[in-house]
Specification:
Fructose-1,6-Bisphosphatase, Chain A, domain 1, five-stranded mixed sheet, eight-stranded mixed sheet, 17 strands, D-Maltodextrin-Binding Protein, domain 2, binds 6-O-phosphono-alpha-D-fructofuranose
């Protein structure tokens, strides 16, 4: 059997990237390895979710007041377990945990990084077999090494992220992550159980023809956003259209498609969510970091997502994210109305 050595695994890629940073300790590579390991286990459960009694509500409600699916709990426990027993992470902030999870053991207290995550975004779609995802965000801790991680390690603005990424459990399972160098995509090769480089140096097209928004909330949006959506609907061949409206209801799937093909995803504030629905620390910030590293843009409607100074672990934000020129056109309508 010919072994295709052109394939580069995630581990090989991160080791090769370390050569660009002689001072690197390898802790980030190890943390990404831990994340990939947990993702492979989640992937197994996601793929068989329809076969075992892992579907349906776990009868619990999370800090967001949302019904927690059993797969949420499984994924959350897995990512926390793998990072706790790794050598690179001092603690985790998770959508599923009210407070930060501080690992507080000698090895973890000497670790360089902390991680924020949404262990299974879009989990409301688990029972209907729609793509779902894990989102993660990595920061260098600001508290003293050798001591337990503190909340200040997690309440850093998104522009301090060291790396950010997501795993999309879809028609194939992909891990996409960004560092300050580039954004790269790895597809899980089930035959060898490895994430292999499939999308090197991802760039978000500066133009797109896809806009993603929940039209059901249309009349709750500010006037400038409604104007922009009307413009999207009127696009034709003469002005960069026609556009397609695509909204999966699983942000990772929508943002991943728009990252690759070009497009804009919008989750504005609504009357019942005046601060927005999406969470700043473990949804907006990591996706904003990725899209900017790929040449796109992300704001909350008025300011750059990555410049927002967080005050609470689970604080929410509106999110506008995607192709640079589409974001600029949106802002030309939201600015006019200010
Ligand atoms: P709505 C899933 O719960 C999620 O957080 C995102 O993945 C998704 O884009 C959004 O909410 C969907 O929200 O209000 O349009 O159903």
């Amino acid at each position: 059997m010919n072994i295709n050595r052109k394939v580069q695994t995630l581990d090989e890629f991160t080791i090769q990237q370390r050569r660009d940073f002689p001072q690197a300790t390898g802790e980030l590579s190890m943390l990404l390895k831990d994340i990939a390991l947990a993702a492979k286990r989640v992937n197994v459960e996601v793929n068989k979710a329809g076969l075992v009694d892992i579907l349906g509500d776990a009868g619990e409600v999370n800090v967001q007041g949302e019904d927690v699916k059993k797969l949420d709990i499984f994924a959350n426990n897995l990512f926390i377990g793998v990072t706790r027993h790794g050598v690179s992470c001092a603690g985790v902030g998770s959508e599923e945990n009210d407070d930060i999870v501080v690992f507080d053991d000698p090895l973890s207290n000497n670790s360089k990084y902390v991680m924020l995550m949404d262990p299974l975004d879009g989990s409301g779609n688990i029972d209907v077999n729609v793509s779902i995802g894990t989102i993660f965000s990595i920061y260098r801790r600001v508290s003293e090494k050798g001591t337990p991680a503190t909340i200040e390690d997690f309440l850093q603005p998104g522009n301090k992220q060291i790396a950010a990424g997501y795993i999309v459990y879809g028609s194939s399972t992909m891990l996409v992550y960004a560092t300050r160098i580039s954004v790269n995509g790895f597809t899980l090769d089930q035959t060898i159980g490895e994430f292999t480089l499939s999308h090197p140096d991802i760039r978000c097209p500066e133009e797109g023809k896809i806009y993603s928004v929940n039209h059901g909330n249309f009349w709750q949006f500010d006037e400038g956003i409604r104007k922009y959506i009307n413009i999207c609907q009127k696009k034709d061949k003469s002005n960069g259209g026609p556009y397609n409206q695509r909204y999966i209801g699983s942000m990772i799937a929508d943002v991943h498609r728009n990252l690759i093909k070009g497009g804009i995803f919008m989750y504005p504030t609504t009357s019942d969510k005046p601060k927005g629905k999406l969470r700043l620390l473990y949804e907006c910030n990591p996706l904003a970091y990725i899209i900017e590293k790929a040449g796109g843009k992300a704001t909350n409607g008025t300011e750059r997502i990555l410049d927002i100074q967080p005050t609470e672990l689970h604080q929410r934000s509106s999110l506008f994210i995607g192709s640079m020129k589409m974001m600029d056109e949106l802002e030309s309508y939201t600015r006019k109305v200010e």
